[in-house]
Amino acid sequence: MPYLIGVHSSLMEHVKSRALEEVVILNVDTNTLESPFNDLEKLPADVVSGLKMKLRKQSGTTGEGVARAFLRAQAALFGGYQDALRFNPDEPITFCEETFINHRSSSMRQFLQNAVHLQLFKQFIESRLEKLNEGKGLTDVFEEEIHLCGFSSGWSKSYQNWLQHVKVQKSERERETASEREGKSERERQRGTEGMEGDCVVVVG
Fold first, then answer.
1. HSE-up of residue 31 (Cα within 13 Å, Cβ side)
2. Is residue 139 part of a domain?
3. Are 44 and 114 in contact (CB under 8 A)?
4. Which of 58, 77, 155, 190 has a CA positioned 20 to 30 A from the CA of residue 70?
5. Total count of domains within the chain
């Protein structure tokens, strides 16, 4: 769990004199960033350049523009996940990592081969599958960004067909259950009637 900690500039020399591991320092006065990580080198170059361009446009502005720029970058990285969804009748929707990686450009594959093993990505896919399997669909801002990035939405037809099949199967099971209940009630009623017919009533006058 990362922490965001504010430190006054007068204390920075003291802070830097201590052993700092995996600490990123952002100096808001000079607008400089010190990081022990090389995360940018691991990202596809076209995604990084696109993100930088959008952030420059947002420089000095307030609002959700910066957040939206990062969301667009995430959509560019992971937007093709829908093409790796698997819809099989009578089975929950699943996700194929191999298809997800192979359907992207060669410049993306090396990054995605590592990304699919990250806990954050796995949680993301699990949450998407949970919504889809519950019939809720996907209509959040991330899906909007994916659409704006130009990724195919052909998977939605497959999802609608799968969902319709699930609804039909559910309706059939409900009818079968109702029929079984009616049959059970009828058998119990018949047994009760047969018991009454077998009773012998003696009247003494």
1. 3
2. yes
3. no
4. 155
5. 1
